[in-house]
Automatic annotation (TrEMBL):
Source organism per UniProt: Nonomuraea polychroma
Domain of life: Bacteria
The HTH lysR-type domain, residue ranges: 8-65
Keyword set, alphabetical order: DNA-binding, Transcription, Transcription regulation
Record-linked SUPFAM superfamilies: Periplasmic binding protein-like II, Winged helix' DNA-binding domain
Family stated for the protein in its record: Belongs to the LysR transcriptional regulatory family.
UniProt xrefs under InterPro entries: LysR_HTH_N (IPR000847), LysR_subst-bd (IPR005119), WH-like_DNA-bd_sf (IPR036388), WH_DNA-bd_sf (IPR036390)
Listed GO MF terms: DNA-binding transcription factor activity; transcription cis-regulatory region binding
Identification of the protein by name: DNA-binding transcriptional LysR family regulator
Length: 302
């Protein structure tokens, strides 16, 4: 069955998704290597093809309409499927054996990489994988320096000098000890109150730290951290002991929320504000191929 004539091109769908991810038509244009007027023209062509208004354009910038947000939601699996197709073809052309050097931030290494590697081993049992774990800044440095072929990072943006691809979204959640006053409050906690409260945070260079700081900075200048700890395990233990609140990935605190050691605090922020992206990163001159392309395809599909 042929595609309907109003079917949009993948490139312009990817551009619209980039607007959603960056919050800016100009930044989306920069990511795609085109000018902002060219990006605006492509979005206008898409709007005419779909007969929908996707962006509200104003003197202070552009933002997605309700229809635009819906189109982005539908576009994401289409783009993922197209990329998986290309990755799969690349993997078929590449060698199935060899050594793959992977670096991953702590959250991704703990909660996503093991499953990916199991799937990769089932597909390519001869591939030997060397995994290094650190914060996102350290992972980016390993990839930039050529010590890792493929990296996986968290945070609000793409590390300088690297190419990237979003593999998954992640939800940030504010948590406290069961005895903390916020655990018993009614209604949602304001983002201004959260930003003005000293929190226990990861160390500078952590993708989680950067993401949380970026979210809070949209409301007001965040209060200085109550403490800076180098691992999520240490942070969770400190929060459970009643030291101070924190904001972490829901993946990281899922077990503690289920057994009651920590309590999630509802916030008055829009859900999109509390979402961040897990990204695969690589050097522009060394795009993923062979086992690297296969692992990337697995990460996207999972």
């Amino acid at each position: 069955m042929p595609l309907p004539p109003e079917t949009p091109d993948l490139d312009v769908l990817d551009l619209l998704v980039a607007v959603a991810e960056t919050g800016s038509l100009g930044q989306a244009a920069q990511r795609h290597g085109i000018s902002q007027p060219a990006a605006s023209m492509r979005i206008s062509t898409l709007e005419r093809r779909l007969r929908l208004v996707l962006l509200e354009r104003g003197p202070t910038g552009s933002r997605l309409t309700t229809a635009g947000a819906a189109v982005v939601t539908w576009a994401l699996p289409v783009l993922d499927a197209a990329r998986a197709l290309v990755d799969g073809v690349t993997a078929l052309h590449a060698e199935g054996t060899g050594r793959l050097r992977v670096a991953a931030s702590m959250t991704i290494a703990d909660h996503r990489v093991p499953g990916w590697l199991v799937a990769l081993r089932a597909r390519s049992p001869d591939v030997r994988v060397a995994l290094q774990v650190g914060n996102s800044e350290h992972v980016a440095a390993l990839v930039q320096g050529g010590s890792a072929d493929l990296g996986f990072v968290e945070g609000p943006g793409v590390p300088r000098g690297l190419r990237s691809r979003v593999v998954e979204s992640d939800e940030l959640v504010a948590v406290v000890a069961p005895g903390h006053p916020w655990a018993r409050r009614r209604g949602r906690l304001s983002m201004a109150t959260l930003a003005g409260t000293p929190l226990i945070m990861r160390e500078p260079g952590s993708g989680t730290r950067d993401a949380v700081w970026g979210v809070l900075s949209r409301v007001r200048e965040p209060a200085p951290p109550a403490a800076e700890l180098g691992s999520t395990a240490a942070i969770k233990a400190a929060v459970a002991a009643g030291e101070a609140p924190t904001v972490l990935s829901r993946l990281v605190v899922r077990g503690e929320l289920e057994d009651g050691r920590l309590v999630a605090v509802p916030l008055d922020a829009e859900p999109a504000l509390l979402r961040r992206w897990f990204r695969a990163v690589w050097r522009p001159e060394a795009p993923p191929s062979g086992a690297g392309a296969a692992l990337l395809a697995i990460a996207v599909r999972r």
